[in-house]
Write a structure and sequence with these properties.
The chain has 199 residues and is mainly alpha-helical. It has 6 helices and 2 strands; from the N terminus they run αααααββα.
């Protein structure tokens, strides 16, 4: 197994530890631990692709597992946020629907011997998801520090810090959902001929 594939496997291996860190409320600074794990896992996504291209180490395993590892990491974070009531569950339903749609489209295309490459909108979608997740984890860690009296409590208008962080998180995820839905529509529009012409 080459280095890019090892990094992809590492990203998947980090997911259970990340989920445990997010959900383990009794662990002091658990949001900070989760944030650091997520940043490391996300960076491996950038690193494995860069190394694979520069060293010509692109493999079928990497083509299959790399996007799968990305989806598992991001969706694990979003499901955890729903469990902690940090975001609206409908956002996750929409994102899941898009991922199933695009994955199904790629499977149909692969059966026809066609490879559907990622486009710029897919990359924008991924970046927006990572930014939203990092921001929510950072805000929740700040809220944890406020609860531990290590940061001063504050309010903006009628919103205390907890409510403010919730609504900022909702806005960021809503923006992510827009990019996610848009990229899904573009994927389908650009590749609909694959589905319509398949046997």
């Amino acid at each position: 197994m080459n280095l890019p594939n090892k990094l992809t496997v590492l990203r998947m291996a980090l997911v259970p530890f990340f989920v445990a860190a997010v959900l383990w409320q009794g662990l002091p600074h658990h949001y900070l631990v989760a944030l650091l794990l997520f940043i490391v896992a996300s960076y491996t996504d950038h690193l494995d692709g860069k190394i694979a291209r520069e060293r010509n180490l692109i493999t079928n395993f990497g083509k299959f597992m790399d996007p799968l590892a990305d989806k598992i990491l991001v969706l694990s974070a979003l499901v955890c946020f729903v469990s902690l009531q940090l975001i609206n569950p409908w956002w996750v339903v929409i994102i899941l629907a898009r991922e199933f749609l695009v994955t199904s489209l790629r499977l149909v295309a692969a059966d026809e011997g066609i490879v559907i490459a990622a486009n710029i909108w897919g990359k924008v979608k991924t970046v927006s998801q990572i930014v939203a997740i990092v921001a929510i984890l950072a805000m929740q860690y700040a809220q944890e520090l406020i609860g531990m009296h290590l940061l001063p409590a504050f309010a903006v208008g009628t919103l205390d810090s907890g409510a403010l962080f919730y609504w900022v998180g909702e806005l960021l995820v809503f923006i992510t959902v827009l990019f996610t839905a848009l990229s899904g529509v573009i994927y389908v529009k650009q590749n609909w001929k694959v589905v319509s012409s398949s046997k």
